[in-house]
Design a protein that fits this description.
Bound molecules: flavin mononucleotide, iron/sulfur cluster, FE2/S2 (inorganic) cluster
CATH topology of the largest domain in chain B: Glutaredoxin
Oligomer: heterodimer
Largest sheet of chain A: 5 strands, mixed
CATH class of the largest domain in chain A: Alpha Beta
CATH superfamily of the largest domain in chain B: Glutaredoxin
Distance between the termini of chain A: 52 Å
Order of helices and strands of chain B: HHHHEHHEEEEH
Distance between the termini of chain B: 31 Å
Strand order of the largest sheet of chain B: 2-3-1-4-5
Structural class of chain A: alpha/beta
CATH architecture of the largest domain in chain B: 3-Layer(aba) Sandwich
CATH class of the largest domain in chain B: Alpha Beta
Structural class of chain B: alpha+beta
Number of strands of chain A: 16
Strand content of chain A: 5-15%
Chain lengths: ~575, ~160
């Protein structure tokens, strides 16, 4: 029997009320990949065994990520009808006290609390002596659109997503808007792709919408092989419903018949949570035949790839879904004409599609009002390296990069100073510490030799060597080159050879010119972005740190000593 | 049918997703066996109506596939940029020493495989390593060596 959307919403609301203001306290534990690495599974086990041994009744949920990775393992306690009180860097031994004093006794362990988050609709007084987490440097700059539910809801329970407004955008698109009006909202939002190239999303969708073929596909790209970026996987771990709803709306607006969500094999947290969100959406009638009683029918499949960074390139991704080697295709024809299995196809990044539900709900104009110039909306940044606060923040575009690093991330830790920032993944660039007083905007960053890219921001302090970092990035690019075209395949190997030589302090005076020459050939002659952009790490490093290269080549010293330590890179197995 | 062939057959036929391909079949075998034996290349070729050559082309492209039985344990160390800037090389060196290896590979007694990984996905907890696919973050050379020793010890106690 098909239940109406109103009934689903009522049931979801009733369940949410039960969770937040029912009989039992609610304990939520961050268990995204970063939480796991910090020991969240051990903490979860400790919570469950303490509840059992102390005979305390509470609901325990594994949620995604609040973005405060530096404080992981992170858990919070919400007493019925109360506010959420968070404990950071929890170790399993500390759990007994939290359970006895707070969960059972109703009194927070103030000395150990990281902060509280006030809950809408709660009339409980805010806790004494515990800071407001919304005033934390990492949260104060934020405007959470995609991440609005992250860390708040159980990603394996679609009812929690629905209780927080989930699937209202799909309902609005299907019932109140037609396909064209839905596309118009995305157009009005000015949304641009978050997978790297920042291409206007509505323009891309209109190519597919304009193709009258009966079978058309929407692909969601969660390959995310960039070291230093984990925001796509994190969205799937924290709030897969937002993405699934976005993929369905994209299918509606473009007239597609099926969506694919493409994830790298082995990342089981994101894969399992995404699969559950798709299956539950089908159970509630948000996928399948005649969705919400309309003539729109649509399916989503989760497809897996093997390890390959280039599989994230849009045409290589289609090859991988078809089960082949992930090697890019020649274009034209473009995907909107001949794509997956020869059918017209549209490819978007996870973040791009995850913005869509809120854009449809609140209107394109609202989204366009956030951001800077033609860089509308927010950007989701992964802050890593030796920073005080590492983690993930969603901030409006147009924010000053120096505020992100010095304020939100709390600057470099241990009293050291920032040397450079590596931005936008391995095909992005570096920015010297003196150049970070700059607005985060797609065009401004590109002009500075860096890119927003996937949103990775890797900081390095004065102990890092720029030549070593460049070598490491090119080593990655060389390892990942798919080998289809020779300017990239040979160019990467040649660049790496030269950089290895410079790191061994055996570089020659011609080496910089030689690398520039190789880089020009790669840019001009490569088939895909991997080779075309693959010189960026070198060119941006030379732009900001020429003298450090000279020191290695001319003076034969590595000023930081990094290059004297042993180096390893993975064995070449890609044949 | 041998036990191995049966497991390959069941893994490939057990796929429930609508889009079944050479790659998805190989991934299913790898999940089941931890490696791709020659028998699997033959079986997937027959199953997919492809040549063994076609299947080998796919299998050899993706470095997650290995072609020899796995060791009892696998330790991976992240080699990505976020981990690199905070000391991944030192962590890897220490793991190699604890394992008695010179570089990536299997120990002679096949108790341990050590690999580099391009990004384990927990970059905010760098440097990251994994023991039998369980992540550990904020490692240093000492803790990494302990993690390896602990993994090998656990096994000894289990016997
Ligand atoms: C080598 C290479 C790797 C890429 N990897 C990814 C990736 O992991 N995820 C992604 O969304 N886009 C990736 N891209 C960009 C995609 O080709 C494509 O532009 C993007 O998925 C389009 O989505 P968008 O319009 O929403 O940005 C990659 C591009 C190249 C050249
Ligand atoms: S540029 Fe590099 S990654 Fe792209 S097709 Fe050519 S060899 Fe492959
Ligand atoms: S707080 Fe979880 S990805 Fe980090
Ligand atoms: S770079 Fe090491 S976990 Fe991502």
């Amino acid at each position: 029997m098909v239940v109406s959307f109103v009934e689903i919403g009522l049931e979801a609301g009733r369940r949410w009320q039960e969770l937040t203001a029912g009989e039992r306290p609610w304990i939520r534990i961050g268990t995204a990949l970063c939480g796991e690495a910090a020991g969240a599974f051990e903490v979860t086990d400790a919570v469950e065994s303490e509840l059992a041994s102390q005979g305390v009744s509470a609901k325990v949920s594994r949620v995604g990520c609040l973005g405060l990775c530096f404080a992981e393992p992170l858990l919070d306690v919400q007493l019925p009808g109360g506010h959420r009180i968070f404990y950071g860097n929890v170790d399993p031994e500390g759990v007994a006290e939290i359970v006895s004093a707070h969960v059972a006794g109703g009194t927070p362990v103030t000395a150990k609390a990281l902060g509280y988050l006030a809950q809408n609709g709660s009339d409980a007084p805010v806790p004494d002596g515990i800071p407001d987490l919304d005033q934390h440097p990492m949260r104060i700059w934020e405007d959470r659109i995609v991440l609005r539910n992250a860390g708040n809801i159980d990603p394996m329970d679609i009812h929690q997503y629905v209780a927080n407004g989930g699937y209202q955008a799909l309902h609005k698109a299907l019932i109140d808007l037609d396909r064209e009006q839905t596309l118009d909202e995305v157009k009005a939002s000015g949304l641009r792709g978050r997978g790297g190239a920042a291409f206007p999303t509505a323009t891309k969708w209109s190519f597919l919408a304009g193709n009258p073929a009966p079978e058309k596909y929407v692909l969601c790209n969660c390959e995310e092989g960039d070291p230093g970026a984990f925001n796509d996987k994190n969205i799937l771990e924290s709030d897969p419903g937002t993405l699934v709803e976005g993929v369905i709306i994209a299918g509606y607006a473009t007239g597609a018949s099926k969506g694919y969500i493409f994830i790298r094999h082995g990342h089981n947290g994101p894969i399992d949570r995404c699969r559950a969100a798709v299956d539950q959406a089908r159970e509630l009638g948000f996928l399948g035949e005649n969705i919400m009683g309309t003539d729109f029918s649509y399916e989503i499949e989760v497809a897996l790839t093997g390890d390959s960074y280039v599989a994230g390139e849009e045409s290589a991704l289609m090859e991988a879904i078809e089960g082949k080697r992930a090697m890019p295709r020649f274009r034209p024809p473009f995907p909107a004409q001949v794509g997956l299995f020869g059918k017209p196809t549209n490819i978007n990044n996870v973040k791009t599609l995850a913005y869509v539900p809120e854009i449809v709900s609140k209107g394109g104009e609202w989204f366009a009002g956030i951001g800077h110039d033609t860089s509308t909306g927010t950007v989701i940044l992964c802050l890593t390296g030796p920073l005080k606060y590492t983690g993930m923040v969603e901030v409006p575009l147009g924010i000053n990069l120096k505020d992100v690093i010095n304020e939100a991330a709390g600057g470099v830790q241990d009293g050291k100073t920032l040397k450079f920032l590596q931005t936008g993944g391995p095909l992005g660039g570096v920015l010297g510490a003196d150049s970070i007083d700059i607005l985060l905007d797609f065009e401004i960053l590109r002009a500075a030799g860096a890119i927003v890219g996937s949103g990775g921001l890797i900081a390095a302090d004065e102990s890092a060597c720029i030549v070593d970092m460049t070598r490491s990035l090119i080593s990655f690019c060389q390892y990942e080159s798919c080998g289809k075209c020779f300017p990239c395949r040979m160019g990467m190997s040649h660049l790496l050879e030269v950089l290895e030589r410079i790191c061994r302090l055996e570089g020659t005076s011609e080496d910089l010119a030689l690398m520039r020459n190789i880089g020009e050939n790669m840019q001009a002659g490569s088939l895909c972005g991997h080779g075309q952009l693959g010189f960026n790490p070198v060119s941006s490093a030379l732009r900001y740190f020429g003298p450090e290269f000279d020191a290695h080549i001319t003076d034969r010293i590595c000023p930081t000593g990094t290059c004297l330590a042993p180096r390893y890179s993975p064995a070449q197995t890609r044949r | 049918m041998s036990g191995l062939e049966q497991r390959i057959h069941d893994a490939v036929h057990g796929q429930t997703q609508p889009t079944v391909t050479v790659l998805s079949s190989l991934l299913a075998v790898e999940d089941e066996l931890g490696y791709i034996p020659k028998e699997a290349l033959d079986f997937v070729a027959g199953f997919s109506n492809a040549t063994v050559n076609d299947v080998w082309a796919v299998a050899s492209f993706y470095p997650n596939f290995r072609f020899e039985p796995p060791s009892e344990h696998v330790v991976e160390v992240c080699w990505g940029a976020s981990c690199h800037v905070v000391g991944a090389m030192g962590v890897f060196k220490s793991v190699l020493e604890a394992a008695g290896l010179e570089d990536e590979g299997d120990t002679l007694d096949r108790r341990l495989t050590v690999r580099l990984n391009t990004c384990l996905g927990a970059c905010s907890q760098a440097p990251v390593m994994s023991m039998d696919h369980h992540l550990a973050g904020r490692t240093n050379p000492d803790s990494a060596a302990k993690n390896v020793a602990h993994l090998l010890e656990e096994e000894a106690h289990g016997r």
